[in-house]
Amino acid sequence: MITMQHKNRFSYNQAVNYSSIEISGLTENSKDIVDNHNGQYIVIGKDVHKSSLSEKRGSELHESSRGPYTFRDLESLPPRRHAITWLLPGEELHLELNVIYHKQQDKREELCMGYLYVTDYRLRFEERIPEWMSSEPLIFDVVLGCISKIEKIGYYNVRGGSKNSNLKIQPYGISINCKDVRKVRFFLKRELRNRRALFDCLKFYSFPNTNRQPFFAKKYKEKFQFDGWLLFDANSEFIRQKKSNDSWRPTLINKDYDFAGTYPSLLFVPSEVFKTKSPDDFLSSVSKFRSKKRIPVLSWIDYRTSAALVRSSQPLVGALSRKSASDEDYLDMIVSVNPNSKYLLILDARPSINAKANRANGGGYENYSNCQLKFMDIQNIHVVRESLKKLKDACFPRIRQKRFQQTLEETKWLAHLQTILDAAALAAREIYLHKNSVLVHCSDGWDRTAQITSLTMLQLDPYYRTIEGFSVLIEKEWCSFGHKFAHRIGHGQDKPEDKERSPIFVQFIDCVWQLYNQFTSAFEFNVRFLKTILDELYSCRFGTFLYNCERERSELQVKENTTSVWSFILENRESYVNDKYDSEATLGDFIRQKAKVYPRFWTDYYCRYSQLVPKEDEDRYSLFDHDGSADAMTILNGEITRFKVIDSGSSESEGLNEQNESIEIPKFRLSPAISPTFSQQFSYMPHERGVQSSRWSPARILQQHGTYSFVDVKERLPNKYYNLPSSSTLSDCKNETKF
């Protein structure tokens, strides 16, 4: 059976002429007319309940738990007679078909038969199972904005069967790749020739920009009590930060976006600028030496010390090493308005080799006497895009247990997160401990720059760790400062291979989760909050993440014609509150101790659509597991030596290695025992499973927040134990003679 909307309700330009669909060869019993609340539908053909494919090629179809169905033995599905109640306000149904959903399981593949609905916002699959069965039907949605690529599946064999098998599986249908890891396939009956209708409908509504259609956000009509567009006001946020500090002041030079088109209309610059003869002329002179005219402007200020976090784009030094007196004077002003600052720390987010290469294209980096420059080695959008692509392949449709850890390491996703977190931690320490101002930039200042500034502010200001504060942070550092959401996510564009696409914002949210995971009580919001933001990043249901900058949203009247995602979130605020939140908790100790956050694999997000998630706890999949660095080896060898000295009762235990004392590592537990005798060979043993796994390097033994043992492979001495307190770090125990 195929049900299709009457052609007078089908509104896209290349609409299929349904009246010309070939229906010859069908029996009269297979034709029907269905009436429902959406109008008259034509019902053509037959469909099936469910079928399954066996795991092994060439074997016969097995009997699934829902019945001994085969792919070829199709049975009629009854017409849908129930009313559709799940449509959102403004959402319209445009196509309804009976399809076969290809569900990939751990050890088998299943074919689930049911109804497929296509609206201007989503596609929805509802499995149809016999009434006598008590199991719940499979129901899921794929938001059209999340679709990256749609392909027709040709008429060929995928499983084929052996030479002696009559099994012929013809995957004739549609394959859909999503931006959030998923890959979905629907099979259709070839004789009905309805694939074109489904393909065209999905193409038309999934890529509105390509088809010159409005985003669903402009059709969405749901009303909320709170207007999320009122949550962020640049001037109000500046007043909240500075309190009585007047070292920075607002300027209206960009009120019409003529000064810097990708910057917000309201900018904040050092108060010294207004002591010049013509502040606007001076700022215009500075802008000529910065890429896209994105001059250094204020992101955040510590009102007590005047230490500021500033962002910009790269200077236009070029191959000829050009200089700008105005740019140097401007950076001097940033230093001078902070009485505690001895210099300006410039964090160039790029690898040094990339920054130097940019000089050939007219870019470059600063070399000023009053500045200290450090490169953060954060990779560009192209490297990050390929990294996530590998991660998706590793996570969907199933996890290969034996190789997952190696595969995860090969993606380098966690390593990329580590460089971002390290850069933000360095900026936070410079402001919090040394009271110096920090300037952050990459090439154009809208990707890696936003990652560093946002994570720095998240550590320094507890307001940004609240639900409202984090919403303001995203509006401020990402939306208003011109992160190119439209290009990086590919909203509404049928260009899956576009080189401008990159998961920069996804990286940022993952980094936030890393901080949340280690300092849970310091955050008012929970993990569901972060997942919702990522889901709505793709959905195009709200106007928040549409387009590339504030200027575009203003010209297209996004605030007037769409709803803010924060309206939805604040309406459902209770769902996003962290029940472990402590409003008095700070990250001050973390910053002071120069501790390091070792990223872990976010299983609950990246594997939520996988049929099989890693058996091990997500703690196992951390960057520290894969880090064979000299630092980790030094830590481990130093601790081994210390334990030996303590066990022997030697007086040398009073004088521990200074290098070992200076190294700070995150808290972790060693339990229930540490053998007093160590060899240079260790095995990794999770106690909760009690099974010794393959041998790991010493660096992998220092597992953050894990519950592991150091076990001597050559000789085990079960009668002597040293128990470390679970709340201690190794550095806490340096002067202890008893544990």
Number of domains: 3
Number of helices: 22
Oligomer: single chain
Task: Outline the biggest β-sheet.
Answer: 8 strands, antiparallel
Overall number of strands: 21
Distance between the termini: 72 Å
Q: Taking Cα atoms only, what radius of gyration do you get, to the nearest Å? A: 30 Å
What low-confidence regions span 5 or more consecutive residues with pLDDT below 50? 1-75, 156-169, 625-637, 639-739
Chain-averaged pLDDT:
77
Strand content: 15-25%
Active site: 442
Protein name: Myotubularin phosphatase domain-containing protein
Pfam families: Myotub-related
Domain Myotubularin phosphatase: 228-606
Summarize the structure in words.
The chain has 739 residues and is α+β, with helices and mostly antiparallel strands. The chain folds into three domains: 2-206, PH-domain like (Roll), CATH 2.30.29; 228-606, no CATH class; 627-733, no CATH class. It is 29% helix and 16% strand. The chain has 22 helices and 21 strands. The strands form five sheets. Strands 4, 5, 6, 7, 8, 9, 10 and 11 form an eight-stranded antiparallel sheet that branches. The protein has a five-stranded mixed sheet with strand order 14-15-18-16-17, with helices on both faces. A three-stranded antiparallel sheet has the order 1-3-2, with no helix packed on it. Helix 6 (381-395) packs antiparallel against helix 7 (404-411), helix 8 packs across helix 9 (448-460) and helix 9 packs antiparallel against helix 10. The longest helix is centred in the middle third of the chain and has 20 residues, at 413-432. The radius of gyration is 30 Å and the shape is elongated. The termini are far apart.
